[in-house]
Predict the structure.
Amino acid sequence: MNAKKMSTDFAVTGQIAVADVAAAGRDGYRSIICNRPDGEGWGQPAFAEIEKAAKAAGLQAAYLPIVPGRMDASEVETFDALMARLPKPVLAYCRSGARASGLWAASRSSRRSA
């Protein structure tokens, strides 16, 4: 897992494995957001598997799947609500980290324009 810090409270990475969840906890993350729809790619663990590993590691997990190229304002609002309630720091993932990064950037942009 190669996480990229976007802020002190948020980082993104590409697809994680179940074994990466405990490592994320050891790295100091307290929550995980999955931005990848289940079944998008071969060999991808289902969110339920990640969530189970997160609970076992004492982390919170949230599922906010983003279809590539189809992020909308309601998903940005949901992301904002998750960021308001989840323990920090948060690690978000998708296939490559691009959707998670884009969601974070859209959230920051929407707050600046409000």
